[in-house]
Amino acid sequence: MFFINGIQWSIRYVPAFSEYLQRSDGSFTIGMTDGVTNEIFICDKLHGEKLRHVICHETVHAFCFSYNVVFPIEFEERLCNFVADYGEEILDLVDDLLALLRMSA
Questions:
Q1: What distance in Å separates the CA atoms of residue 68 and residue 59, rounded to the nearest whole number?
Q2: pLDDT tens digit string along 13-51?
Q3: What is the spatial distance between Cα 16 and Cα 62, in angstroms, rounded to a whole number?
């Protein structure tokens, strides 16, 4: 269990073809965020970097729900992928820049 903006969330591992991983068009995915139940569902077959990427992606959806940030779904998916792909690199650079600024102050 974890909190975003004071809202309790949980992550549940579920089987690959679980109803919780089924999209509205009937296809299946490997991660899904439910903004009604405040749960993130993750395929139990994932591990390593793929698991990290999917959890990051779904957590961005949870942030959007928790802060009532609404985008068209295509944009939201791009945003979630962008953060999952580059978020760590961005934060590492920010930490490096802050360290440099502290040294020059």
A1: 14
A2: 999 999 999 999 999 999 999 999 999 999 999 999 999
A3: 21
What is the token pair recorded at 43?
A: 């395929």
DSSP string, 28-92: B-SEEEETTTTEEEEETT--HHHHHHHHHHHHHHHHHHHTT----HHHHHHHHHHHHHHHHHHHH
- Answer whether 58's CB lies under 8 Å from 81's CB: no
Q: Which of 47, 2, 48, 45 lies closest to 33 in space, CA to CA?
A: 2
- Percentage of the chain beyond pLDDT 90 is 98
What does pTM read for this prediction?
Answer: 0.93
pLDDT of residue 105: 76
